[in-house]
Amino acid sequence: MNDLMHAHEIIQHIDQATGGFVSHSFERLGDHYVDKALGYCRRKLSDRTEEKIREAGQRASNEFSARLVYDILKNADGVAADEIVELWSTLLAKALTGDDKSIRPMYFDIIAKLSPKDCVIFALLGGNEISDISVSEDEKRHLLEQVELRTRRNSFIERKSSFSVTEISFCYDALERLGLIEMAPMQYRHLTIFGKGFYQAVCAPLEKKND
Fold first, then answer.
1. What is the spatial distance between Cα 146 and Cα 188, in angstroms, rounded to a whole number?
2. CA separation for the pair 209, 59 (Å, rounded)
3. Can you tell me whether residue 183 is helix, strand or coil?
4. d(CA 203, CA 131)
5. Bridge partners, residue 183, by sequence
6. DSSP secondary-structure letter at 188?
7. DSSP designation for 208
8. Residues 6+ apart with CB under 8 A from 71
9. Can you tell me the distance from the alpha carbon of 91 to that of 75, in angstroms, rounded to the nearest whole number?
10. Which one, of 50, 194, 178, 75, lies nearest residue 126 by Cα?
């Protein structure tokens, strides 16, 4: 019998002799740390949501969808990664302010399947900066447009994310499998129609309120 099995048997005997005191103590200890972790995640989501609403000069609507807010909170519960909290807080801020027309419940399942790195790459592919990358008329005339555009977009993603080429390729694969991105005719990846709708809901900021 190895030491681990022996120690386990000793703990079992002590637990039985004390009427389950040991196992109950471990359960309470586990519950304590779970509660602390959940509290931390909920505060992070709440703080980031309030910040986004404040930055947009908006406030919570009196007519927000309680069901939608509940579903977002339920699905976001326990999420700690900043990159994923960003997505949930955007959805929550939009739901609370009544700017929820672009939110589809199917997006909740998509977020649950994303890694923090996937979120970074997706946000970069949908952002304005990458849309501004172009080639010169001279490059177009010399048939270099496709190569140059792909190279510049790839360099932009690598520089902004600080991920390796291999890490980025893993993200591309995951995002393609989820139907969020695809290969364009110019041989670079961009958002699908579905991906654009998803981006509008979970990444695009709240519209600023006009004073």
1. 9
2. 10
3. strand
4. 15
5. 189
6. S
7. P
8. 105, 108
9. 11
10. 194
pLDDT above 70 covers what percent of the chain?
Answer: 76
User: Which tokens sit at 69?
Assistant: 């807010």
What does the pLDDT look like over 98-150, one tens digit per residue?
999 999 999 999 999 999 999 999 999 999 888 776 655 555 545 456 677 78
Q: Provide DSSP, 7-23.
A: HHHHHHHHHHHTTSHHH
> pTM score, two decimals?
0.79
Residue with more model confidence, 49 or 4: 49
What confidence tier does 9 reach under pLDDT thresholds 50, 70, 90?
Answer: low
DSSP assignment of 24-77, as one string? Answer: HHHHHHHHHHHHHHHHHHHHHHHHHHHHHHHHTT----TT--HHHHHHHHHHHT
